[in-house]
Design a protein that fits this description.
Number of helices: 5
Number of strands: 0
Radius of gyration: 39 Å
Helix content: 55-70%
Length: about 200
């Protein structure tokens, strides 16, 4: 056995495979939910301790060991939440986390209400995603129609109608052709009609 096998720099560098963005979104949102559940449990425990302290008048908090409360979320509910999280586009992950935190601060929910609040934020985000997708679709359609109508406008604008320039001979035209206009004086600007061009 050689000593070089003990050193890490002799091993080939294995780069970690790129993770799927959907998996990262699910993991991020579920970690946020778990953290908020723990914070809600901690706040509830502190409120219970404060209530006991006020009720009894004695502080035994140094003596009490707190057991880990479970969030009450069943594995089936967790899978449903993970599936809902997988529908969130990565660009909406950050705003979803921020909205969830904002709702937690505003509502200060009980532990059993946190999951429901999280579900409502996910539904709100999915609704916003659908609205944005429809807006993009309509914008694309509008811009496509706009370019088509614009090309029609340019096509139509190339065709010009000159009412005084027609091939139909009239009596007044014959009279005008026999009449020769005198040349203008140089101090005056010269205006030409379309026929003279």
């Amino acid at each position: 056995m050689s000593i070089s096998s003990w050193f890490k720099w002799n091993e080939p560098y294995h780069r970690f495979a790129q993770r799927n963005p959907t998996e990262m979104v699910v993991e991020t949102l579920m970690m946020e939910l778990d953290w908020q559940l723990k914070q809600a449990e901690k706040m509830q425990r502190e409120q219970e301790d404060e209530y006991r302290r006020i009720k009894t008048g004695v502080d035994y908090s140094w003596l009490v060991s707190h057991s880990q409360h479970s969030s009450g979320m069943t594995p089936g509910e967790r899978l449903d939440l993970e599936e809902a999280c997988s529908k969130i586009h990565p660009s909406y992950c950050g705003p979803t986390v921020l909205r969830f935190r904002q709702m937690m601060v505003e509502d200060e929910p009980e532990v059993h209400e946190v999951v429901q609040l999280f579900q409502s934020v996910l539904q709100e985000t999915m609704g916003r995603m659908k609205e944005d997708q429809e807006t993009r679709k309509l914008t694309r359609q509008w811009s496509k129609k706009r370019t088509v109508s614009h090309t029609m406008m340019t096509f139509k604008s190339r065709v010009r109608i000159y009412p005084f320039n027609s091939d139909i001979k009239t009596v007044s035209e014959d009279v005008e052709q026999t009449f020769v206009a005198p040349r203008r004086v140089w101090s005056m600007p010269e205006f030409k009609t379309i026929k003279e061009l």
